[in-house]
Amino acid sequence: MAQFPRDETGTLGLAQEIADGLAANTEVYPAPPVSTEDLNAALADCVTARDAVQTAKAALEQAVSTKQLAFDALEDKMKKEIRYAENTVDYDNAKLKLIGWGGRKSATPLEAPGQVGNLVIQSQGEGRIELAWGKPADGGKVAAYKVKCRPRIIEGTTGAAWANADTAMETEITLTGQIQGKELEYCVVAVNKAGEGVASNTVTAVL
Protein backbone atom coordinates (compact mmCIF):
# COMPACT_ATOMS: atom_id res chain seq x y z
CA MET A 1 0.00 0.00 0.00
CA ALA A 2 1.26 3.45 -0.90
CA GLN A 3 2.42 5.71 1.92
CA PHE A 4 2.04 9.46 2.16
CA PRO A 5 5.43 11.13 1.58
CA ARG A 6 7.38 12.37 4.60
CA ASP A 7 9.59 14.94 2.87
CA GLU A 8 8.93 18.11 0.88
CA THR A 9 10.28 16.74 -2.40
CA GLY A 10 8.05 13.69 -2.15
CA THR A 11 5.02 15.82 -1.26
CA LEU A 12 5.54 18.15 -4.23
CA GLY A 13 6.09 15.22 -6.57
CA LEU A 14 2.94 13.41 -5.47
CA ALA A 15 0.89 16.62 -5.62
CA GLN A 16 1.96 17.15 -9.22
CA GLU A 17 1.08 13.56 -10.13
CA ILE A 18 -2.37 13.91 -8.52
CA ALA A 19 -3.07 17.19 -10.31
CA ASP A 20 -1.92 15.83 -13.67
CA GLY A 21 -3.81 12.55 -13.19
CA LEU A 22 -7.06 14.26 -12.26
CA ALA A 23 -6.81 16.65 -15.21
CA ALA A 24 -6.12 13.80 -17.66
CA ASN A 25 -8.80 11.46 -16.32
CA THR A 26 -11.94 13.53 -15.78
CA GLU A 27 -14.12 10.64 -16.91
CA VAL A 28 -12.78 8.55 -14.03
CA TYR A 29 -12.68 11.40 -11.49
CA PRO A 30 -15.46 13.77 -12.59
CA ALA A 31 -15.93 15.67 -9.30
CA PRO A 32 -12.80 15.79 -7.08
CA PRO A 33 -13.32 17.68 -3.77
CA VAL A 34 -10.46 20.05 -4.70
CA SER A 35 -10.33 21.33 -8.24
CA THR A 36 -7.13 20.79 -10.21
CA GLU A 37 -6.82 24.58 -10.45
CA ASP A 38 -6.85 24.92 -6.65
CA LEU A 39 -4.46 22.00 -6.25
CA ASN A 40 -2.02 23.47 -8.78
CA ALA A 41 -2.27 26.87 -7.07
CA ALA A 42 -1.47 25.31 -3.67
CA LEU A 43 1.42 23.43 -5.27
CA ALA A 44 2.76 26.65 -6.77
CA ASP A 45 2.48 28.39 -3.37
CA CYS A 46 4.58 25.63 -1.77
CA VAL A 47 7.25 25.86 -4.46
CA THR A 48 7.39 29.64 -4.07
CA ALA A 49 7.64 29.36 -0.27
CA ARG A 50 10.36 26.71 -0.51
CA ASP A 51 12.36 28.82 -2.94
CA ALA A 52 11.97 31.84 -0.66
CA VAL A 53 13.38 29.85 2.27
CA GLN A 54 16.36 28.71 0.19
CA THR A 55 16.98 32.29 -0.90
CA ALA A 56 16.72 33.49 2.70
CA LYS A 57 19.17 30.79 3.87
CA ALA A 58 21.68 31.83 1.22
CA ALA A 59 21.25 35.48 2.22
CA LEU A 60 21.70 34.58 5.91
CA GLU A 61 24.90 32.65 5.20
CA GLN A 62 26.22 35.61 3.24
CA ALA A 63 25.23 38.02 6.02
CA VAL A 64 26.97 35.88 8.67
CA SER A 65 30.10 35.68 6.52
CA THR A 66 30.06 39.45 5.97
CA LYS A 67 29.60 40.07 9.70
CA GLN A 68 32.54 37.80 10.57
CA LEU A 69 34.79 39.56 8.09
CA ALA A 70 33.78 42.91 9.58
CA PHE A 71 34.56 41.74 13.12
CA ASP A 72 37.89 40.24 12.00
CA ALA A 73 38.86 43.55 10.41
CA LEU A 74 37.81 45.51 13.52
CA GLU A 75 39.72 43.20 15.88
CA ASP A 76 42.84 43.45 13.72
CA LYS A 77 42.72 47.25 13.87
CA MET A 78 42.07 47.18 17.64
CA LYS A 79 45.07 44.91 18.24
CA LYS A 80 47.30 47.25 16.25
CA GLU A 81 46.11 50.19 18.34
CA ILE A 82 46.66 48.26 21.58
CA ARG A 83 50.19 47.20 20.60
CA TYR A 84 50.95 50.81 19.68
CA ALA A 85 49.59 52.05 23.02
CA GLU A 86 51.47 49.42 25.06
CA ASN A 87 54.77 50.26 23.40
CA THR A 88 54.17 54.01 23.58
CA VAL A 89 53.51 54.10 27.35
CA ASP A 90 55.72 51.09 28.20
CA TYR A 91 52.78 49.10 29.59
CA ASP A 92 51.82 51.79 32.10
CA ASN A 93 48.49 50.54 33.47
CA ALA A 94 47.17 53.96 34.42
CA LYS A 95 47.78 55.33 30.92
CA LEU A 96 46.48 52.22 29.18
CA LYS A 97 43.24 52.51 31.13
CA LEU A 98 42.68 55.81 29.32
CA ILE A 99 41.80 53.74 26.24
CA GLY A 100 39.96 51.02 28.16
CA TRP A 101 42.91 48.63 28.23
CA GLY A 102 45.27 47.31 30.92
CA GLY A 103 48.93 46.42 31.00
CA ARG A 104 50.42 43.04 31.59
CA LYS A 105 49.59 41.38 34.87
CA SER A 106 52.40 40.87 37.29
CA ALA A 107 53.61 37.31 37.24
CA THR A 108 52.41 35.26 40.20
CA PRO A 109 55.40 33.73 41.99
CA LEU A 110 55.47 29.95 41.70
CA GLU A 111 55.16 28.14 45.00
CA ALA A 112 56.29 24.64 45.86
CA PRO A 113 53.68 21.88 45.62
CA GLY A 114 51.69 20.77 48.63
CA GLN A 115 51.94 17.44 50.40
CA VAL A 116 51.48 14.24 48.42
CA GLY A 117 48.60 12.24 49.84
CA ASN A 118 47.82 8.64 50.68
CA LEU A 119 50.90 6.74 49.53
CA VAL A 120 50.06 3.02 49.30
CA ILE A 121 51.74 -0.19 48.15
CA GLN A 122 49.86 -1.64 45.18
CA SER A 123 51.94 -4.81 44.93
CA GLN A 124 55.40 -6.12 45.76
CA GLY A 125 57.73 -9.01 44.98
CA GLU A 126 61.39 -9.94 44.95
CA GLY A 127 63.28 -6.68 44.52
CA ARG A 128 60.14 -5.01 43.13
CA ILE A 129 57.48 -2.70 44.55
CA GLU A 130 54.59 -0.82 42.96
CA LEU A 131 53.53 2.42 44.65
CA ALA A 132 50.61 4.79 44.08
CA TRP A 133 49.65 8.11 45.67
CA GLY A 134 47.34 11.11 45.42
CA LYS A 135 48.06 14.53 43.95
CA PRO A 136 48.66 17.40 46.41
CA ALA A 137 45.48 19.22 47.35
CA ASP A 138 47.20 22.61 47.42
CA GLY A 139 50.41 24.41 46.54
CA GLY A 140 51.99 25.07 43.17
CA LYS A 141 51.68 22.97 40.03
CA VAL A 142 53.54 19.67 40.23
CA ALA A 143 56.36 19.13 37.72
CA ALA A 144 57.35 15.65 38.90
CA TYR A 145 57.40 13.32 41.88
CA LYS A 146 60.55 12.16 43.67
CA VAL A 147 60.23 8.68 45.11
CA LYS A 148 62.56 8.28 48.08
CA CYS A 149 63.76 5.22 49.96
CA ARG A 150 65.81 4.35 53.04
CA PRO A 151 66.31 1.40 55.39
CA ARG A 152 63.67 1.44 58.11
CA ILE A 153 64.68 3.52 61.11
CA ILE A 154 65.12 1.51 64.27
CA GLU A 155 63.53 3.25 67.22
CA GLY A 156 66.10 5.20 69.19
CA THR A 157 68.52 5.62 66.25
CA THR A 158 68.96 8.40 63.71
CA GLY A 159 68.79 6.04 60.73
CA ALA A 160 69.95 6.59 57.16
CA ALA A 161 69.11 9.65 55.10
CA TRP A 162 66.47 9.45 52.39
CA ALA A 163 67.86 8.58 48.95
CA ASN A 164 66.14 9.22 45.62
CA ALA A 165 64.91 5.88 44.27
CA ASP A 166 63.37 7.25 41.07
CA THR A 167 61.34 10.09 39.55
CA ALA A 168 57.75 9.77 38.32
CA MET A 169 55.62 12.01 36.13
CA GLU A 170 52.34 10.33 37.09
CA THR A 171 50.92 9.25 40.45
CA GLU A 172 52.23 5.70 40.35
CA ILE A 173 55.49 3.90 39.76
CA THR A 174 57.02 0.42 39.78
CA LEU A 175 60.51 0.22 41.26
CA THR A 176 62.74 -2.72 40.40
CA GLY A 177 66.21 -3.75 41.54
CA GLN A 178 65.41 -2.87 45.14
CA ILE A 179 67.41 -4.22 48.09
CA GLN A 180 66.03 -7.59 49.16
CA GLY A 181 65.65 -9.01 52.63
CA LYS A 182 65.73 -5.66 54.42
CA GLU A 183 62.89 -3.56 55.75
CA LEU A 184 62.68 -0.46 53.55
CA GLU A 185 60.71 2.75 53.92
CA TYR A 186 59.34 4.75 50.99
CA CYS A 187 57.88 8.23 50.67
CA VAL A 188 57.01 10.55 47.76
CA VAL A 189 57.67 14.27 47.39
CA ALA A 190 56.11 16.55 44.74
CA VAL A 191 58.56 19.00 43.15
CA ASN A 192 58.65 21.95 40.76
CA LYS A 193 61.02 24.85 40.03
CA ALA A 194 60.12 26.48 43.35
CA GLY A 195 61.28 23.46 45.33
CA GLU A 196 59.98 20.37 47.07
CA GLY A 197 56.68 19.97 48.87
CA VAL A 198 56.07 18.13 52.13
CA ALA A 199 56.79 14.41 51.94
CA SER A 200 53.92 11.95 51.89
CA ASN A 201 53.20 9.39 54.54
CA THR A 202 55.72 6.55 54.77
CA VAL A 203 55.10 2.93 53.76
CA THR A 204 57.28 -0.01 54.76
CA ALA A 205 58.06 -3.24 52.89
CA VAL A 206 60.46 -6.19 52.89
CA LEU A 207 61.14 -7.22 49.28
From TrEMBL:
Name the source's superkingdom.
Bacteria
Report which residue ranges the record marks as coiled coil. none
**InterPro entries according to UniProt:** FN3_dom, FN3_sf, Ig-like_fold
SUPFAM superfamilies in the record: Fibronectin type III
SMART domains named among the record's database cross-references? FN3
Name all Fibronectin type-III domain ranges. 115-207
User: Where does the signal peptide begin and end?
Assistant: none
Please state what the protein is called.
Answer: Fibronectin type III domain-containing protein
Organism expressing this protein natively: Candidatus Kentrum sp. LFY
